[in-house]
Amino acid sequence: MSVSALVFSSSLALKLLSGAAPASAKSAPAAKPAVVPLSVSEKLVGPALTEGHAYARLAELTDGIGPRLSGSEGAAAAVQWALRSFQADGVKAWTESVKVPHWVRGEERGEVLASDTTRGHPLFLLALGGSPPTAPEGLTAEVVEVSSLEALTALGDAVKGKIVFFNHTMAVAADYGRFAGIRGRGPAQAAKQGAVGALVRSLATASLRTPHTGSTRFEEGGPTVPAASVTTEDAELLHRLVAAGPVRVKMVLGCSELPDADSHNVVAEIRGREKPDEVVLIGAHLDSWDVGTGAHDDGAGVVMVMEAARLLKKLPQAPRRTVRVVLYMNEENGLAGGRAYAQAHAAELPRHVAAMEMDSGGGRPVGVSVRAGTGAQDALRPWLPPLVALGAANFSTREAGGADISPLLPARVPFFGVEVDASRYFDVHHTHADTLDKVDPQDLARSTAAVAWVTYALAEMPQTLVRPEAPATPFPVAPPAPTPPKSAAGH
Amino acid sequence: MSVSALVFSSSLALKLLSGAAPASAKSAPAAKPAVVPLSVSEKLVGPALTEGHAYARLAELTDGIGPRLSGSEGAAAAVQWALRSFQADGVKAWTESVKVPHWVRGEERGEVLASDTTRGHPLFLLALGGSPPTAPEGLTAEVVEVSSLEALTALGDAVKGKIVFFNHTMAVAADYGRFAGIRGRGPAQAAKQGAVGALVRSLATASLRTPHTGSTRFEEGGPTVPAASVTTEDAELLHRLVAAGPVRVKMVLGCSELPDADSHNVVAEIRGREKPDEVVLIGAHLDSWDVGTGAHDDGAGVVMVMEAARLLKKLPQAPRRTVRVVLYMNEENGLAGGRAYAQAHAAELPRHVAAMEMDSGGGRPVGVSVRAGTGAQDALRPWLPPLVALGAANFSTREAGGADISPLLPARVPFFGVEVDASRYFDVHHTHADTLDKVDPQDLARSTAAVAWVTYALAEMPQTLVRPEAPATPFPVAPPAPTPPKSAAGH
Fold first, then answer.
1. What pLDDT shows up at residue B37?
2. Percent helix / strand / coil, chain B, rounded to 5
């Protein structure tokens, strides 16, 4: 795509836009269009699409540093890399301390033992983050299959001494939210009912015998069981074998929880030219799982927001408000970075006028999302035209959000976001296969361009967004699940 | 699909067919249509599509027995299972001795060592069948990347002491034949030039960090090197890192070649009612790789031909000629079963009137292939109408063939085949992911029906096919690569 195609007269763009995103009947009458400095869009969108800078950074992070689970050497190296990179871009940056969990994977293997119906099979599994280890010789028990937390509860103590196998029907990315609770809370529930282990079908939209890890949570001081994900293939195998007769599984998990580690969020900022105390916060999480190299989750988000900062810094004049970038540590297994930021900056939060976290992979942009009080879409609408040719000049039906910014909810910070196509995100999410080759450089460049421009819009627009109501449960126990925007279905 | 939809008047069918497969201008004028007993098609196609018998057998073979590399306990168990299954079907069956290679996989792992450009990475690899082991402590050397055997030759002794990394551009199933020689002959060539190891990019059309194994060949008494396949992701990683500077890899392979083992082909037959000495041979290979459960390769072929025999045996009267089923041992790493059959039955081969091997997975049928002398298509054409609703009533542009029947080429046995959609076959071929869930029961049933009917056609037709010319090189060194039929491209 040529850059010039993206820069067109605002009248044409507004005409196109009015077709793409009709004003909601519920929203306030459209305000008189603000004077949007479209010439700036060229300076943000152009380089984002042509220079390949975000993708090159993603290669440094994934090939150069690799996996970066909280507490690991990779995570520490990523912090130093991010600091160096911001400095190379001339963007002021610093670290802020975060105490993080330090869970480490060990030897792990599983097998279906031979029986009347099978000569036995290996099980392809990954311990879930937070799982305790088995005894060194492993754990052997009969499998009980359940398809939901409710079904487990109904079994009562019939699971005593057994390995609970959680099966489910995740088929498309949009199912993630429905089933993530099984991974997050299932093993703890199984432990309470006397089970000795848990196997969870991977939360996957594709598999080539590919296990997907993720975190599971046990209550402080409550019972625990060794817990692992198995591939969808192995889940199907277990399902068939369980239907035919008793199935015994052996699992060996060598994982362990080390003492909490000292780590850091990386924070950078471009001070606003007129309202430096008003902060537009953009972020992504720097940690990843210990498998794969976290290219989509969340390397892509990291390089998008870093590149937005680099390009904003190069503008002839800074935006009206301060743009602050936070690369959070520990989104995957604790959310310590998100909580630490909210705590350390509590006094500033009333002046945080907007916040975004990019954390749904490096897909192409498909829309803009908002979570704010009345009139937010009307305020943003005049700023959307430069996104037409990127395919993102419409409002998503999904509310903006993000795990690491969820601690800002009680402070009623408005959220915004660039929605990306996440339809194939759960093919690789939390797997060994989340690697650089899975990220399309064109898609990444387009989403980066959209992030840079929308961030500028929030930092430059004359109005500030009306703050939303505070939610009933301010700190969600589970990070909100990234789901693909509904508007992406037809693309 | 209802069975009744498949059974229609021959006039309608022939009309449909004449549109689907116009007579070639080069072929002889069409013979007067033979009297084709269409009522029999109902007795073959109906049960194949409705009873699910082939799929149930495939579950027994894959879930119950699992992998079955030549010489393994799994292979021996599969022989006994096949014998029992034929006997349960009332089909006379026996075993014929085959001496097979007995290669076993051991511990295996690889890693890219840390350097100025990377903190290091694990490599996801599988030793290639036939590879020698590394020393127990592994092998560490610098990587040299080449993209072809010619490029390797051009490097001469510049690869001395190095690990040769074979990269290539396989993208679709039809590319397999172009690149399989790199896996088969590359490591031997690298060894001759003084290399100390070989890594071969997996021959894959999809990957989630999924290595694809396969056999590699060294000359008797010639130099060898430890050789493994790496995933496409790891190949891309190596490619990027090699471009940036020297890359050192450590690989540990614990595989070994044990003494040749005693094994068996399983042979079954339905004696012909009029010409019992004329043999229509149908087959598939019973061995599989030691990873996955060989569901597509070649469990699917095995159950198709077994089911064809079961259904032919249930007909009110046997076909005119003898139908013989051979489940070959050792297609994957030696072809000992195919050679043993040709040798043991050498005297009979002049009366082998047709031979087929099903070995391209369990996809849906897309056509019928032939390799014979003049007039073969004309002789077969009247028998195609029952395949219209199965989508296979056309002639493939590809010649029929198969690794295990290639030793029959010098005897000029005509070959036939049911071509299946193999466009996704190389997603799972020779991987841990070749498991039952990858085979669609409907597709398998349709191809099974087509195999049963086409086999019947060859055994019942009044004519015998004209024998083809003998090939210049009768025993191919490498098994012919299964490639998807060109006619499948538009489906």
1. 87
2. 40, 20, 40
Q: What are the helix (H) ranges across A271-401?
A: 300-313, 336-344, 376-380
**What is the tens place of the pLDDT at every residue in B76-126?**
999 999 999 999 999 999 999 999 999 999 999 999 999 999 999 999 999
The C-alpha angle B220, B223, B224, rounded to 5 degrees, equals 95
CB contact at 8 A, A459 and A319: yes
A32 inside 8 A of chain B by CB:
no
Q: Which fold has domain B106-254?
A: Glucose Oxidase; domain 1 (3.50.30)
The residues of B that are catalytic are 331
Distance CA B414, CA B325 (A): 16
**Closest chain A residue to the Cα of B438, Cα to Cα:** A233
Which pLDDT tens digit goes with each residue over A422-479?
A: 999 999 999 999 999 999 999 999 999 999 999 999 999 999 999 999 887 655 444 4
pLDDT of A19 over the 60 cut: no
CB A281 within 8 A of CB A57: no
Flag if B66 and A118 touch (Cβ within 8 Å).
Answer: yes
- Find out whether A296 and A362 touch, Cβ atoms under 8 Å: yes
Mean pLDDT throughout B152-168? 98
Chain A hits for B63, CB-CB cut-off 8 Å, are 117-118, 121, 237, 240-241
**In the numeric block, which tokens belong to residue A172?**
């498309």
A66 touches chain B (CB under 8 A): yes
Q: Coil, helix or strand for B143?
A: strand
Beta-carbon contacts of residue B72 (< 8 Å; ≥ 6 apart): B102, B104, B290
DSSP assignment of B221-263 equals: TS----EEEE-HHHHHHHHHHHHHS--EEEEEE--EEEEEEEE
Handedness of CA A456, A459, A461, A467 (dihedral sign): positive
Q: Which residues in chain A have Cβ-Cβ distances shorter than 8 Å to B293?
A: 121
Domain residue ranges of chain A, discontinuous segments joined by +: 3-102+260-488, 106-254
| ipTM greater than 0.85 | yes
Residues of B in contact with A210 (CB under 8 A): 208-210, 433
Alpha helices in A175-230 (DSSP H): 176-192
Q: Span A3-102+260-488: which CATH code?
A: 3.40.630.10
Positive or negative: CA dihedral A403, A405, A409, A412: negative
Distance of CA A447 to the CA centre of its chain: 15
What single-letter amino acid sits at A307?
E
Distance CA A70, CA A288 (A): 8
- State phi, psi for A269 to the nearest 5 degrees: -155, 155
Architecture of domain B3-101+260-488: 3-Layer(aba) Sandwich (3.40)
B119 to chain A, minimum CA–CA distance in Å?
6
d(CA A62, CA A303): 11
Residues 6+ apart with CB under 8 A from B351: B277, B278, B279
Report d(CA B110, CA B467) in Å as an integer: 50
pLDDT tens profile A243-272: 999 999 999 999 999 999 999 999 999 999
pLDDT higher than 70, residue B490: no
